[in-house]
Design brief:
alpha/beta; twelve-stranded mixed beta sheet; four-stranded parallel beta sheet; 9 helices; disordered N terminus; binds 2-acetamido-2-deoxy-beta-D-glucopyranose
């Protein structure tokens, strides 16, 4: 199979000559080896310009990365993006690229073909973003050595996620998002997963308890699916979790208390579900929390947070929970939380605060929220405080005008009479 050394040497010279003539003439790169000619040919068939040796003159955006083997270097990473419309993948080209560990497509609307098994097995990272038109679970399932799988904005037709993930025993990070994926979440996942993003698909059913066994999981994004049922009570077992999004599903029940056992939470998004129960106080004890989104649920009761906690966060959203309210002796209406203040029974005072001026003791405590910061908000606060006074002033002016008019009319009638 191997060509005789002399032949190899000639080829080597030819390629380095080709490479050095087109590159800057002064470059004395002849000592470093060049890319395998078969791979140069493969790159050409993929419309990647090879006038300059891609190992010596790295292409922009790191599209190619080579190893240092001799006599020829081999590609270990290839990133194809913005491919021309006429690009088609050829089996022979792909076969000569089986040295690749990492392969990615971005905006390459070419047709997928069955990959040679050498290449399928050598890949540890595969990404397909807005590319390859349409994939199937079986097609993806052949990449059994992947640690990283990303498919995004590309439809994936499969009877279930287990078809894809079932044999990828080394997988650490998986993103299959915006892919119109159907079926339910797999009952079994590989223990070593650190990132799972299955957002914006059509996944149905509930979140299996087995998800809570993923001790190394740092990011879980199941947002924008059709998941229902409750958040498993064992969720707190995900002790490595940092980012969690379960937003825009149909999850119900309450937010499990066990989540308080996850110390490193940074980003929690449970918005747009049907979660009920109260807002747990433990969120304010999570030191690293930056984003807390609980809006558009059915949470009720008194919001258990103070202003210093809310100000510490980058994003805090609780609006759209009609039975949730805030304690106006703890939080100011200036914070614009999108929820009503509580009455003394911990129920929302029905209409927004400023209209409720006829109220008894409540309006007194409303004026008790004197946070004296941020100048730009004070105008609104003043407006609100002057609300009732304006009414009084209006009534006073109206009344005095009427009195004046009556007096004037009386005087007028006397003068005329
Ligand atoms: C290209 O790769 C090098 C080394 O791996 C890295 O330092 C650099 O940031 C990468 N550049 C781009 C644009 O990704
Ligand atoms: C691909 O095209 C997009 C916009 O059309 C551009 O922003 C991006 O930099 C391009 N990527 C490469 C690797 O050329
Ligand atoms: C990939 O997996 C196959 C079969 O599971 C194994 O035989 C092979 O050695 C692996 N290849 C690499 C490059 O790890
Ligand atoms: C998913 O399906 C919807 C409607 O069926 C379609 O509009 C959308 O383009 C599909 N998404 C992808 C990534 O194919
Ligand atoms: C998905 O694959 C099945 C079986 O191969 C086929 O019957 C079905 O039409 C495919 N669905 C789409 C949307 O392509
Ligand atoms: C998972 O990680 C542990 C420790 O990091 C390691 O010992 C084990 O081999 C890994 N399992 C797999 C299937 O990669
Ligand atoms: C989850 O995915 C959605 C859509 O892909 C994205 O907008 C959001 O930022 C992600 N959230 C987290 C916490 O990663
Ligand atoms: C919360 O929702 C669950 C399931 O929908 C229901 O069984 C429970 O009674 C509700 N609890 C409250 C306090 O509304
Ligand atoms: C996790 O959330 C933080 C804060 O919102 C964000 O900056 C970061 O990019 C997220 N990480 C991932 C992997 O989504
Ligand atoms: C606000 O709440 C946090 C957590 O519950 C607490 O540690 C802190 O002392 C409170 N701050 C004030 C000003 O009450
Ligand atoms: C509001 O907070 C005050 C002071 O902390 C407390 O006395 C009162 O009971 C709280 N009201 C409600 C409805 O929780």
């Amino acid at each position: 199979m191997k060509p005789p050394p002399f032949f190899l040497f000639l080829l080597y010279l030819a390629v380095s000559a080709a490479a050095t003539t087109t590159a800057t003439p002064s470059s004395s790169s002849s000592s470093s080896s060049t890319l395998d000619p078969k791979q140069i040919q493969a790159l050409e068939s993929l419309n990647i310009p090879t006038a300059r040796d891609p190992c010596i003159q790295p292409s922009p955006h790191n599209a190619t990365v080579c190893d240092n083997s001799k006599p020829f270097r081999h590609l270990v990473s290839l990133h194809l993006s913005n491919c021309s419309a006429d690009l088609s993948l050829s089996f022979t080209a792909l076969k000569s690229l089986s040295s690749l560990h990492s392969l990615s497509f971005t905006n390459c609307h070419t047709y997928p073909i069955r990959f040679p098994s050498d290449l399928s097995l050598s890949l540890t990272s595969f990404a397909c973003i807005r590319s390859l038109r349409r994939l199937t679970g079986v097609w993806l399932s052949r990449f059994v050595n992947l640690t990283d799988l990303t498919v995004s904005f590309t439809p994936v037709n499969t009877t279930g996620l287990y078809v894809i993930l079932g044999n990828m025993h080394k997988l650490k990070k998986v993103t299959i998002s915006h892919a119109n994926l159907t079926g339910s979440l797999p009952r079994h996942l590989h223990q070593n997963l650190t990132h799972v993003d299955l957002s914006d698909n059509k996944l149905k059913g509930n979140i299996p308890t087995s998800f809570t066994l993923l001790e190394d999981l740092e990011c879980l994004n199941l947002s924008s699916n059709e998941l229902n049922g409750v958040i498993p009570t064992e969720f707190g077992d995900l002790t490595s979790l940092k980012n969690l999004s379960l937003s825009s599903n149909s999850l119900s029940g309450s937010i499990p208390d066990s989540i308080s056992a996850i110390p490193g939470l940074v980003h929690v998004d449970l918005s747009n579900n049907q979660l009920n129960g109260t807002v747990p106080r433990f969120f304010s004890e999570l030191k690293g929390l930056k984003v807390l989104k609980l809006e558009n649920n059915e949470l009720h009761g008194v919001l258990p947070f103070n202003a210093s906690f809310i100000k510490r966060l980058d994003v805090f959203k609780v609006g759209g929970n009609s039975n949730l309210c805030y304690n106006h002796s703890v939080l100011s209406s200036k914070m614009k939380l999108g929820v009503a203040p509580c009455d003394k029974h911990g129920m929302p005072m029905s209409p927004p605060p400023s209209k409720d001026s006829s109220g008894d003791g409540d309006s007194d405590s409303d004026s008790a929220d004197y946070d004296d910061d941020s100048a730009d908000d004070t105008s609104e606060k003043k407006e609100q405080h002057h609300g009732p006074n304006k009414v009084v002033l209006g009534v006073a002016i109206g009344l005095s005008s009427i009195v004046f008019l009556i007096v004037f009319l009386i005087l007028l009638s006397k003068w005329c009479g």
